[in-house]
Design a protein that fits this description.
- The chain has helices at 49-57, 64-79, 87-102, 109-124, 130-160, 188-195, 212-223, 236-241, 267-276, 308-311, 353-359, and strands at residues 5-9, 14-15, 27-32, 43-46, 168-171, 201-205, 227-231, 247-250, 254-256, 261-264, 281-284, 290-291, 330-333, 340-343, 346-348.
- It has two domains: 5-152, Four Helix Bundle (Hemerythrin (Met), subunit A), CATH 1.20.120.420; 156-359, Rossmann fold (3-Layer(aba) Sandwich).
- A hairpin with a 4-residue loop joins strand 9 (254-256) and strand 10 (261-264).
- The chain starts with a strand and ends with a helix.
- 48% of the residues are buried.
- The protein has a seven-stranded mixed sheet with strand order 7-6-5-8-11-14-15. The protein has a four-stranded antiparallel sheet with strand order 2-1-3-4, covered by helices on one side.
- It is α/β, with parallel strands linked by helices and 361 residues long.
- Helix 2 packs antiparallel against helix 3 (87-102) and helix 2 (64-79) runs antiparallel to helix 5.
């Protein structure tokens, strides 16, 4: 598929899976610069903390699972070259780098999940050799990447059961391979259904203001040979009214314990439209996107982004320079609007609270 987030060794080998026989250090974080898509496919390779921070902040890498993978690999890339005299000093440095990366985006819970997992793993190593901990850090990051690939493949298997030959899927933003380590969440069932020989069509909302649906989802689906049509966000209701949509599948950046789901701004409106038109609305996520510490969606922090994304998103002023703007990056879809949640462990149906809890039992 698409190697969105990977580790590249100094010898030039691009890897996504830990191999004890492979020299994984030194190396770099390697990721697709999604800001350049669809015009140009280009990669960023770096070990610099502030560059990695900015890659996440400016959406060179985006999508909750991909952000988590990039943060984990980025943490290992930054720390590997730090010269410290003791394990204690190294662990302090690991926490410092992790805390900085955690400041990049507030809504995507995978960011914090991946960083905490790596930091805790580093702390658990019973060794006095700082190099052992550095190697364990990249090993754990690669485990996160490998796990994400496997979970997305399983989401595809489970979600493809919802699709039949001739179906048309509506999706919002990008929850494909570009948003994960591979395959995607919302797009994975589509890829699997097509792989199984089904004729599946997709309508992709352009997703204002940064057009992830038209720039990224359409590019990704075309690249995979999937029939895709891009529409403006405001056209979704009319397309549903015309009977062109059989099912809506979206991703999510954070799901609360009760099933409320935060996703790219505009998803809530789409869910309301789907409910009115009696179209099933599904959210596709790995378990790492569920935040069991939040009882409902009202507790999910919503990132507010720069005003210029609305009025000068692609270099041309589309509004008065001094006009006031409000630019939340996400909204929260209440669980009562969600038909089901597609996970690597199966498809959850309402009521969600107890079924979500069982995932963690």
């Amino acid at each position: 598929m698409i190697d969105t987030v990977r580790w590249i060794t100094d010898s030039g080998k691009v890897i996504s899976k830990y191999n004890k026989d492979l020299n994984i250090l030194p190396g770099k974080l390697r990721l697709i610069d999604q800001v350049c898509l669809p015009k140009k496919l280009t990669y960023i390779e770096t070990t610099d903390l502030e560059e990695i921070f900015q890659c996440i902040k400016r959406l060179s890498v985006r999508g909750a699972p991909a952000i988590g993978c990039a943060a984990a690999l980025g943490l290992a890339a930054v720390v590997q070259s730090h010269q410290v005299n003791s394990v204690k000093d190294l662990l302090t440095e690991i926490e410092r780098v992790s805390n900085r990366l955690a400041e990049s985006r507030p809504t995507a819970v995978n960011l914090f999940w991946a960083l905490n997992r790596c930091v805790n793993q580093a702390k658990s190593i019973k060794s006095c050799d700082v190099n052992d901990i550095k190697e364990e850090l990249i090993k754990e990051a690669l485990n996160i990447v490998e796990e994400d690939i496997a979970m997305c493949a399983a989401i595809g298997e489970n979600g493809s059961e919802l699709l039949k030959d001739g179906d048309t899927v509506l999706t919002h933003c990008n929850a494909g391979a570009l948003a994960t380590a591979d395959f995607g969440t919302a797009l994975s069932p589509i890829y699997k259904a097509v792989e199984n020989g089904l004729n599946i069509k997709v309508y992709s909302d352009e997703t204002r203001p940064l057009l992830q649906g038209s720039r990224l989802t359409a590019w990704e689906l075309q690249r995979a040979g999937v029939d895709v049509t891009t529409i403006c966000d405001s056209m979704a209701g009319q397309v549903m009214k015309e009977g062109k949509i059989d099912i809506v599948i979206v991703g999510s950046d954070r799901v609360a314990a009760n099933g409320d789901a935060a996703n790219k701004i505009g998803t809530y409106s789409l869910a309301i439209l789907a409910k009115y038109h009696n179209i099933p609305f599904y959210v596709a996520i790995p378990y790492s996107t569920i935040d069991m510490e939040l009882s409902d969606g009202s507790m999910i922090p919503i990132e507010l982004r720069d005003r210029k994304e609305i009025i000068k998103g692609f270099g041309k002023w589309t509004g008065p320079e001094d006009v006031k703007t409000y630019n939340p990056a996400f909204d929260v879809t209440p669980n009562e609007l969600i038909t089901g949640i597609i996970t690597e462990q199966g498809i959850l149906t309402p009521p969600f609270t107890e079924k979500i809890k069982k995932i963690f039992d």
